[in-house]
Amino acid sequence: MKDAAPPELDTLIACPKCDALYRVGVVNKGDRARCERCHTRLFTRRRDAGLVIITTAFASAVLVIAALFLPFIEIRRLGFSNAATIVDAALAFYGGPLFGLSLAVIALIIALPLTRLVLTIYTLTPLVLDRKPWPGAKRAFRFSEAMRPWSMAEIFVVGCAVSLIKLTDLARVEIGPAFWMFVAVVVLMAVQNMVMCRWSVWKALDR
Amino acid sequence: MTVTARDKGLVACRECARVWPVGHAQCGVCGNALRSRDTQSLQKVWAWWIAGIIAYIPANLYPMLTTRTLFHTSEDTIIAGALDLAAHGSFGIAAIILIASVVIPLGKFFAIAYLALAVRQGARWPPGRQYVLYEVVEYIGRWSMIDVFVVAILCSLVQLNVAASITPGIAALTFALSVIFTMLSAQSLDPRLIWDRIETQDTKDPA
């Protein structure tokens, strides 16, 4: 039930931010374009972008899952000590009136980043292998893009750093392995963001 | 002058940048709903904006967290907590907290209101600069969540029996809601409306 665009509309591209209309010729690997008016990135065709995205997404997913149950900060004071995992932090508001906040924190720092990684792998793997997209790939990619602002792993890492300093005069603080794993995830996600070109992905999904 | 998709009787997809003849309700490539301009944009912006302000007030009046140490219990609001940190000499961290939880949220309320008013009534700033403000608001909004994550981390970590414990306050919830509402407010603003202003100004002023 897909209505095909008239062929001449195929060669047009509209800036999603300001509606400026451009005609695109043949786009080669390595080409990139920005909107002349608002400088929004229209497309960036990098060599092997798909492969880079899949490998970094896979690595991030493994790191996030492994980091979930390892301590990211440990504190000691007056002989008492405690270590918190990311799951503990997400469940900090569990029980009591702030229960809803717990769910939100789980979604923002664990569920959504992980979902986005899985959806990205699902959408891009067949494209990189030059196969037909897997069923539901378009819906998966649209959802993943819509969730982008709500995936806050990098903000959580900065929050960790702030907490560390806040705690130094209350107790002795040690950084756990999960903290460094999350830092790595943030770097990998930044690389993905830089390399990912929505326009190219949609073009490939539409083939 | 820039030619927009609307000028050519086309409607652009904001997800995949493809264009369709006016009247298409759904993008044939990615399945996104098509609207040349979101006519309800401003209504949604103001609705979320008001919700955000309403949630921001208790976020500043009630304690964000309660700290219990051996002989001392203190309840800290956002601002009191930051001032306390500054009094202990951690000026950098106090600045981060103040910027993330006070300067950015307040700045965002003003910025969104300015942009929404400018779309309807025009403004002194040229659309180019308005759009930069929009981009900054969109980018920076999520970072206000830092404080919520810090509270989550502190509360899960500092559970040292009688030596020290930290429990979350109701302000953590309303602050998180305020951040979420303002993010939704900024996302509801259709940036193409900002650029439409110059089109009308240009045609009025044939210089």
From TrEMBL, chain A:
Organism per entry: Tateyamaria omphalii
Taxonomy, superkingdom: Bacteria
The name this protein goes by in its record: Paraquat-inducible membrane protein A
Segments traversing the membrane: 49-73, 101-129, 150-167, 179-201
Keywords: Membrane, Transmembrane, Transmembrane helix
InterPro entries recorded: PqiA-like (IPR007498)
Residues forming coiled coils: none
UniProtKB/TrEMBL annotation, chain B:
Protein name (record): Paraquat-inducible membrane protein A
Principal location: membrane
Keywords: Cell inner membrane, Cell membrane, Membrane, Transmembrane, Transmembrane helix
Chain segments annotated as transmembrane: 45-65, 85-118, 139-160, 166-184
Compartments reported by the entry: Cell inner membrane
Gene Ontology CC terms: plasma membrane
Organism phylogeny: Bacteria, Pseudomonadati, Pseudomonadota, Alphaproteobacteria, Rhodobacterales
Signal peptide limits: none
